[in-house]
C-alpha cells in the first residue's frame, strides 16, 4: 500500500490506460454490430440474348451532292438584257433563263439571209447561161455531121459549155458558204437566249442585268462561277470512301440507308450505283457512289449525312447489346446473373449492327446479361435484377 502512495502518478497513468482500452473495445464492439447489418444490394439491368437475323452494315459520314450541277455561261459575247429567273426558282428543261442583247446577232442573221438570196440569184442566172451553152454545143454536134460547121466551132461550143458549168459550180459553192454563214448567224442568235439544260433549282445568281459576258470566259476558266448555277436534286448522290479491308464487301446494287441531321427521324433509302475501281494512293480508300431518289426534294446539296451500306446478313445469330460487353486488354467479357450473383463470362464477338453485336462464343442464349450497372460489379457480387426492354 505504501508503494502506491509513494507513486500516485503511476497509479493515475494505469487508470487512464485501462480506461482508454475499455473505450476502444466498446467502439470496436459497436462497429462490428453495425457491420452485421445486411449490406445493400446493387441493382443491375438485365436483358436476355436474342437469336435473329443480323444485318451487316458499314457506316460512313458524307456530304449530299446534287445529281447534276452546271454553271451557266454565255456562248456569245454581249450584255445581259434580261434575267428570267432568280435564286431558289425551280425551272423546267429548256426554260428560258437569260437573254443576252441580241440586236447585233439579229442583224447578222438578216445580212446572211440577204447574201444567200443574192448568191442564189447568181446561180439562177448562171443556170440560164449553162442551158444556152448546152443547146449551142448540141446544135454544133448535129451540124458537124453534115459538115455545116467546122471542128473549131464545135470545140469552141464545148469550151463555152464547160466554162459555164464551172462558173455554175463556183456560184453554187458560194451559195453553200452563204448557207453555212446563215446557219452560224442563226446559231449565235439562238445562243443569246440561254435555256436550262435540265430541270432543277437555281442555286446561285452571280451577275445582274447589264453585266457583260464573254464566250471566252466559259472556254478558258473552269473555275469561273458563271452567270448562275443550276442544281438537279430529283436524285441526289453521296460519295463514300471505303477502306481497303472492306472493298470486297461493297457491290453495285446494295441497299443503303441515309440519315440527315435536318430530318433525324427519317431514313432515306438509296442504292450503290457506281464503284471506282481504283484506290486513292494517299488514303488507301476507294470511292463508292450512292444514288438516292429525292422526288420531294427534301434532301439538298451540301447537307451532312450518315450512311449505312447493307453488305450482308448473318442468319439467326445470338445477339446482345454492345453496351453489355467489357474489354480488358485482348479479352472481351460480359457479366451474367446466376443464383443472385454477378458472374463474369469471356465471350468472342463478331459483326456489329447499330447497338447490337453478334456473340460467337461464350453464351448459350439462356443467360441474363447485365447491361446497366456492369461497371459496379465484379465476379461474385450479390445483385438484384431489373429487366430492361429489348431495343
Q: Can you tell me about this structure?
A:
The protein has 391 residues and is of the alpha+beta class. It folds into five domains: 34 residues; 83 residues, conserved putative lor/sdh protein from methanococcus maripaludis s2 fold, CATH 2.40.420; 88 residues, Efflux pump adaptor protein, beta barrel domain (Elongation Factor Tu (Ef-tu), domain 3, Beta Barrel), CATH 2.40.30; 55 residues, no CATH class; 90 residues. The chain is built from five helices and 20 strands. Helix 3 packs antiparallel against helix 4.
Task: Spell out the blueprint of helices and strands.
Elements (H helix, E strand, L loop, with lengths): L1 H5 L1 H28 L6 E6 L2 E23 L5 E6 L6 E2 L4 E5 L2 H43 L5 H41 L1 E3 L4 E6 L6 E2 L1 H6 L7 E16 L11 E6 L2 E17 L5 E9 L10 E18 L4 E3 L2 E8 L2 E6 L1 E6 L2 E6 L7 E4 L10 E5 L4
Helix pairs in contact: 3-4
Amino acid at each position: 500500500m505504501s508503494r502506491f502512495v509513494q507513486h500516485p502518478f503511476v497509479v493515475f497513468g494505469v487508470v487512464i490506460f485501462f480506461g482508454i482500452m475499455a473505450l476502444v473495445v466498446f467502439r470496436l464492439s459497436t462497429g462490428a454490430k453495425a457491420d452485421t447489418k445486411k449490406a445493400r444490394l446493387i441493382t443491375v439491368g438485365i436483358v436476355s440474348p436474342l437469336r435473329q437475323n443480323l444485318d451487316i452494315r458499314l457506316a460512313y459520314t458524307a456530304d449530299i451532292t446534287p445529281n447534276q450541277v452546271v454553271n451557266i455561261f454565255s456562248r456569245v459575247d454581249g450584255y445581259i438584257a434580261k434575267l428570267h429567273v432568280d435564286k431558289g426558282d425551280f425551272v423546267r428543261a429548256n426554260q428560258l433563263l437569260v437573254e443576252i442583247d441580241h440586236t447585233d446577232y439579229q442583224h447578222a442573221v438578216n445580212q446572211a439571209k440577204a447574201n444567200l438570196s443574192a448568191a442564189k440569184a447568181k446561180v439562177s442566172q448562171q443556170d440560164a447561161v449553162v442551158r444556152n451553152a448546152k443547146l449551142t454545143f448540141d446544135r454544133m454536134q448535129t451540124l458537124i455531121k453534115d459538115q455545116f460547121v467546122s471542128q473549131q466551132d464545135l470545140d469552141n461550143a464545148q469550151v463555152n459549155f464547160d466554162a459555164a458549168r464551172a462558173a455554175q459550180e463556183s456560184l453554187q459553192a458560194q451559195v453553200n458558204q452563204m448557207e453555212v454563214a446563215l446557219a452560224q448567224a442563226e446559231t449565235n442568235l439562238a445562243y443569246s437566249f440561254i435555256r436550262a439544260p435540265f430541270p432543277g433549282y437555281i442555286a446561285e445568281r452571280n451577275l445582274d442585268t447589264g453585266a457583260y459576258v464573254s464566250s471566252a470566259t466559259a472556254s478558258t476558266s473552269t473555275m469561273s462561277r458563271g452567270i448562275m448555277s443550276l442544281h438537279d436534286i430529283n436524285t441526289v448522290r453521296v460519295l463514300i470512301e471505303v477502306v481497303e479491308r472492306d472493298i470486297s464487301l461493297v457491290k453495285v446494287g446494295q441497299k443503303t440507308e441515309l440519315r440527315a441531321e435536318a430530318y433525324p427521324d427519317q431514313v432515306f433509302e438509296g442504292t450503290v450505283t457506281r464503284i471506282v475501281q481504283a484506290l486513292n494512293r494517299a488514303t488507301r480508300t476507294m470511292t463508292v457512289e450512292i444514288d438516292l431518289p429525292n422526288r420531294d426534294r427534301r434532301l439538298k446539296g451540301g447537307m451532312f449525312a450518315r450512311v449505312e451500306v447493307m453488305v450482308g446478313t448473318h442468319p439467326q445469330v445470338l445477339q446482345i447489346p454492345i453496351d453489355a460487353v467489357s474489354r480488358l486488354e485482348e479479352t472481351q467479357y460480359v457479366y451474367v446473373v446466376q443464383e443472385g450473383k454477378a458472374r463474369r463470362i469471356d465471350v468472342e464477338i463478331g459483326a456489329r449492327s447499330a447497338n447490337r453485336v453478334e456473340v460467337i462464343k461464350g453464351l448459350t442464349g439462356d443467360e441474363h446479361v447485365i447491361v446497366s450497372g456492369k461497371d459496379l460489379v465484379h465476379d461474385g457480387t450479390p445483385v438484384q435484377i431489373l429487366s430492361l426492354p429489348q431495343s
